[in-house]
User: Fold this.
Amino acid sequence: MAPTADAPGTGGLTSEERLLRDTAREFAQREIAPGAIERDEEQRFDRSLFAGMGELGLTAAPLPESVGGAGFSYLGWTLVMEELGAAEMASAVTLSVHILSQYPVVTFGSDEQHREWLAPMLAGEALGAFCLTEPHAGSDAAALRTHAVRLDAAGADLPTEAPATDVAAYRLTGTKIWITNAPEADRYLVFATIDPALGAKGITAFLVEKGTPGFGFGSHEQKMGIRSCPAAELIFEGAVVPAARRLGDEGQGYRIALSALAEGRISIAAACVGLARSAMEQAAAYLHQRSAFGAPLAELQGLRFMVAEMAREVAAARALTHEAARAKDRGEAIGELSSLAKWTASDAAMRVATDAVQLFGASGYSRETGIERLMRDAKGAQIYEGTNQVHRVIVADAVMDRARA
Ligand SMILES: Cc1cc2nc3c(=O)[nH]c(=O)nc-3n(C[C@H](O)[C@H](O)[C@H](O)COP(=O)(O)OP(=O)(O)OC[C@H]3O[C@@H](n4cnc5c(N)ncnc54)[C@H](O)[C@@H]3O)c2cc1C
Assistant:
């Protein structure tokens, strides 16, 4: 069915943003939506869809022109993510994580890293992954254990206290889990510690290419939702990464991860708005088609009110998501707003998708209509990019800090 042309809260868009949205919508509905049920069943990643996003320039859309990006506003980016989320959450997550893995390179990377690392990613030729979570470190990411031992030019171990200028390379050992886009991704932004005793202050970011000796993949995650977006375990067994592939300074990694996640959460919030919008639109159309007790279900006020509740959830989540994106475009701090947006939008997606299953009755519960998939897909968004409990912690901290001032 045709998605809403101009949804509430999208009135103030520029002509450029509308064009970007319409381009993403046309591609998402033509190329992505039709095969979504089948790819989910088969748990199959389709690389050609990512390549198609690259051809349209979506893989570079929100990155600044100074590094070869398309330079669209972050608000514009949320429009792209809403359209992808409405077609298939798995494709939206693949692209969102791809962008998440590039943003820190824009902000903290050297000119050489901008040229060499970003160029194929911006073009959609190389797929990116963001690698923070470990078996013992999820919400508590500062507890990660993947170890980056400093090496001199001869390959010998250097102590933590040796000057950074003596470091020629790092040897990475450890395990990452739940890494979206792995093992399909080509370029991995990996967080490791130069000394586990330093906690968050030891965490350092590295740019690691697929194929690096000592870097391989373990089990593939068997997911409840977003099943056509791959996720896997990464195994580092002495992978040597040159110092030129360290992103930022030693010990800057935790800050790099948090700042990237703050941006990524707005992107995921937008995809959730799209998922919720699609669930609402499909449910409303179904109420017109289906009759019971001699009249279309669309005439039952109790069900119409459920659709109204859905519209409220979608519009509120979109408004908060756009506000977070506008704050980012204005260069303001986005930590609290991006948490509010991601928490609100993922909860909205879960509620709207659950109600859509209810409105479709048994058809909603069937794996053949694609409605139950929306519910499974929405659930993940309440967990990744910071669980919604972690967002309560972030928001409470911000409010309580202001109250103390
Ligand atoms: C589909 C999917 C894709 C993912 N993709 C990536 C990826 O690309 N890269 C990556 O690095 N990671 C990825 N992850 C991992 C994800 O970031 C973690 O699952 C998430 O951070 C939660 O960590 P955990 O699973 O270890 O749960 P835990 O941290 O063990 O949490 C367990 C429960 O305790 C709650 N909890 C924990 N701490 C607190 C607290 N302080 N206050 C209140 N409640 C708390 C949590 O909310 C949760 O309910 C992905 C996960 C999923 C499901």
